[in-house]
Amino acid sequence: MLNILDLGAFWFNFVGCVLLIKMIKYLKIYLICIEYSIFV
Fold first, then answer.
1. Strand spans (E) along 1-40
2. Distance, C-alpha 35 to centroid of its chain
3. Tens digit of pLDDT for each residue in 11-30?
4. Cα separation of 9 and 21, whole Å?
5. Longest CA span, the chain
């Protein structure tokens, strides 16, 4: 039986990882757009 606090910590870490991955993807797209606009 999982403890409610353990489950909460798991979900918090899971959501945090997903958000971090999305942020990194958006950051890469943003940097590519900046480089593109500088060259153009």
1. none
2. 22
3. 889 999 999 999 999 999 99
4. 18
5. 59
Position of tokens 């993807």?
25
Q: What DSSP letter does each residue of the chain carry, written as one string?
A: ---HHHHHHHHHHHHHHHHHHHHHHHHHHHHHHHHHHHH-
Residues 31-35, mean pLDDT to the nearest whole number: 91
Number of domains the chain is built from: 1
Dihedral sign for Cα atoms in the order 17, 21, 26, 28: positive
**Structural domain of 7:** 1-40
- Supply the pTM of this predicted model: 0.56
